[in-house]
């Protein structure tokens, strides 16, 4: 039964892709009928994507509860085409569980029926499913390359808009690089095992070849999640994508990278020590760099996109702890690292999808994502504003949200360094712990700016357009927001159930250790008992109870004056004579961070004298008078792009010029190139196999 549901889910994505693609490929009989026909086919495509997502969630739940199942396709090269175990089921639930509300919300967008966007989203969902379900290398690479191509199409959907084409090409280049790393790593493992089955890679013998394969696979999957230094494409790629697709890219598709990392740990076993050190340090750097840029960016879409880089670093820190546990043969340490990292994957998927869904509706309402313009959106767009606030609180790790519980687990996992005897690993755990703790602190500042100024700031100049109001009133958009809000809050309230679910999902990697060590109680003591304890569930009782007690006491002691309304000017930071609407802006709020983190952000500021025409009268002549004013500009730079990629541009251009000389236009020459490349690959694989 489940195999049929799995097949139906994949078929639904295929149907959505075909219907969405042909929605605009044929001309309708009349001009007036064209938009109606296009809208109907687009709706069918979105419904098919929604159906496929629901079916895959059911399949994931079944696999998580009953165990593995496989689908053998006759003639498939490399063995089993599709294999679903508990780990696969867990990531199906996480990925397509957030895809359901994201697709629901996307259906209500004013651009949901424009062009082939439904087909692009369906392609992303289909490729994500194939990559997670892959049982052999060929299916994995097919899903991975399909996902890269889908990213290229979706990110470049509005190619005529500024920077869209560049972002699309950048995403495509990094996607091809990640695919090349995966293929090279898999070929090294094939040289050891002589099989393309992913499960067979577990039989690869320890040595330089296996260590190199580990590193290449980490690099390949790290590109997709946005690990430094291969994160360059991610912020611009997410921000350039059309609003309805951002939640699919950032909340659904990114989980393929994390799943890939979990899977290679499952099949390859312990990584080399040096690789664990590299992952831990890069995880900390990724987290700090991501949140630093998110805190100071002036665009809401870019802010949310940069926070994806930050969350990738936090998740990779937990994965690094698991790598250390695998190296020193400490199964509980491996379990607590995977448990914490997977909990953060859940929180990121929910919070990031909610933020991008809300941002999409806000952008359609006001026509901009400029934080200095978007002020006071929550009272006007109540559902989208609520989503913006709850999503920001989740990613800031505030209590009563899923982000608080997961970040607490990450910090607890990093604190286990005293259990490690290896000095190098111990130091790297300490470095990662310090950087992650710093990141979590800065994240509070970043999302306070979103909540205090964007959601609830002064709103005199904001006038929503008719399109934005239409999206806000749509029941599908509201349903998507409500489901994601309930997920962000409900996962925290039911944290013990979430931990139990994750423990079941990671049991293929750690056996029953994680299952037996998780405390069956509302008090969480994950893996290591008597180390620390926390109950996100009880916080949902205690914090509201304290709030009610304080409100009751304040009402009682105020002699019934507590509920009287007082109207006072908006706080203007103690500046007399300054109107509330001219108080702190989003730019000004982030300025201290630009100064404090100037070494990371390469902050550059300039104070200059400008002359502005006033149009007044000078003497007896009516001339355009000019007044002297001061202008102040601040700019930040991605330090990785500045010092790593820009110096490589001349080398890259030289390689391109050399390669262009090989384009003779002759078929026989191209066939000769392919023959030489094939012989080189065979020679390398043969040499590795004989080692």
Protein model, in words:
- The chain has 691 residues and is mainly α.
- It is built from 28 helices and four strands.
- The strands form two sheets. A two-stranded antiparallel sheet has the order 1-2.
- The radius of gyration is 27 Å and the shape is globular.
- The two termini are 46 Å apart.
Quick recap:
The protein is mainly α and 691 residues long. It contains 28 helices and four strands.
Secondary-structure class: mainly alpha
Overall morphology: globular
Q: Which strand order do you get reading across the main beta sheet?
A: 1-2
The helix content, as a percent range, equals: 55-70%
Q: What's the total number of strands?
A: 4
What does the average pLDDT come to?
A: 85
Main sheet? 2 strands, antiparallel
Strand content: under 5%
Distance between the termini: 46 Å
Number of helices: 28
Taking Cα atoms only, what radius of gyration do you get, to the nearest Å?
Answer: 27 Å
Uncertain regions spanning at least 5 consecutive residues: 26-32
């Amino acid at each position: 039964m489940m195999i049929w549901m799995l097949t139906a889910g994949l078929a639904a994505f295929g149907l959505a892709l075909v219907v969405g693609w042909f929605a605009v490929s044929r001309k309708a009989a009349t001009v007036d009928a064209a938009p109606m026909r296009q809208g109907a086919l687009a709706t069918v495509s979105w419904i098919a994507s929604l159906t496929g997502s629901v079916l895959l969630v059911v399949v994931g739940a079944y696999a998580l509860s009953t165990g593995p199942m496989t689908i053998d396709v006759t003639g498939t090269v490399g063995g089993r085409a599709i294999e679903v175990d508990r780990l696969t089921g867990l990531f199906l639930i996480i990925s397509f569980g957030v895809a359901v509300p994201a697709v629901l919300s996307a259906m209500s967008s004013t651009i949901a029926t424009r062009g082939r966007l439904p087909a692009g989203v369906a392609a992303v969902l289909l490729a994500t499913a194939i990559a997670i379900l892959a049982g052999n290398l060929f299916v994995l690479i097919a899903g991975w390359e399909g996902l890269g191509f889908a990213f290229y199409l979706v990110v470049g959907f509005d190619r005529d808009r500024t920077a869209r084409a560049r972002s699309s090409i950048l995403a495509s280049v990094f996607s091809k690089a990640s695919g090349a790393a995966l293929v090279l790593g898999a070929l090294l493992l094939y040289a050891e095992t002589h099989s393309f089955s992913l499960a067979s890679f577990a039989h690869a013998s320890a040595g330089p070849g296996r260590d190199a394969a580990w590193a290449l696979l980490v690099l390949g999957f790290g590109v997709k999640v946005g690990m430094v230094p291969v994160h360059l494409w991610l912020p611009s790629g997410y921000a350039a994508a059309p609003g309805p697709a951002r939640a699919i890219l950032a909340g659904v598709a990114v989980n393929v990278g994390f799943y890939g990392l979990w899977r290679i740990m499952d099949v390859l076993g312990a990584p080399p020590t040096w690789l664990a050190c590299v992952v831990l340090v890069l995880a900390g750097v990724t987290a700090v760099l991501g949140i630093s840029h998110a805190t100071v960016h002036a665009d809401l879409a870019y802010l949310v996109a940069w926070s994806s880089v930050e969350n990738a670093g936090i998740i990779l820190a937990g994965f690094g702890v698991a790598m250390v546990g695998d190296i020193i043969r400490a199964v509980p340490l491996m379990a607590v690292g995977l448990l914490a990292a997977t909990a953060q994957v859940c929180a990121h998927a929910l919070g990031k999808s909610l933020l991008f869904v809300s941002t999409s509706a806000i952008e359609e309402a006001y026509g901009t994502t400029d934080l200095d313009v978007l002020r006071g959106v929550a009272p006007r767009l109540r559902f989208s504003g609520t989503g913006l606030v709850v999503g920001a609180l989740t990613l800031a790790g505030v209590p009563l949200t899923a982000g608080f519980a997961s970040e607490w687990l990450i910090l607890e996992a990093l604190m286990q360094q005293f259990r490690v005897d290896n000095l190098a690993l111990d130091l790297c755990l300490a470095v990662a712990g310090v950087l992650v703790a710093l990141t979590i602190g800065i994240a509070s500042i970043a999302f306070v700016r979103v909540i205090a100024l964007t959601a609830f700031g002064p709103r005199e100049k904001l006038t929503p357009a008719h399109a934005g109001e239409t999206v806000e009133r749509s029941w599908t958009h509201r349903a998507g927001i409500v489901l994601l809000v309930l997920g962000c809050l409900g996962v925290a309230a039911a944290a013990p159930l979430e931990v139990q679910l994750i423990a079941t999902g990671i049991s293929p990697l750690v056996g029953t250790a994680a299952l037996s060590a998780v405390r069956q109680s509302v008090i969480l003591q994950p893996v290591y008992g008597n180390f620390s304890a926390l109950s996100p569930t009880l916080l949902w009782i205690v914090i509201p109870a304290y709030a009610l007690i304080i409100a009751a006491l304040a009402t009682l002691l105020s002699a019934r004056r507590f509920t009287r309304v007082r109207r006072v000017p908006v706080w203007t930071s103690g500046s007399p004579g300054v109107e509330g609407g001219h108080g702190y802006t989003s730019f000004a709020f982030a300025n201290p961070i630009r100064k404090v983190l100037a070494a990371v952000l390469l902050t550059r500021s300039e104070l200059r004298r400008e002359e502005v025409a006033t149009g007044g009268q000078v003497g007896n002549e009516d001339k355009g008078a000019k007044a002297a004013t001061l202008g102040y500009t601040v700019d930040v730079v991605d330090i990785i792009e500045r010092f790593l990629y820009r110096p490589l541009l001349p080398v890259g251009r030289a390689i391109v010029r050399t390669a262009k000389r090989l384009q003779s236009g002759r078929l026989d020459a191209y066939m000769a190139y392919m023959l030489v490349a094939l012989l080189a690959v065979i020679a390398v694989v043969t040499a590795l196999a004989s080692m």
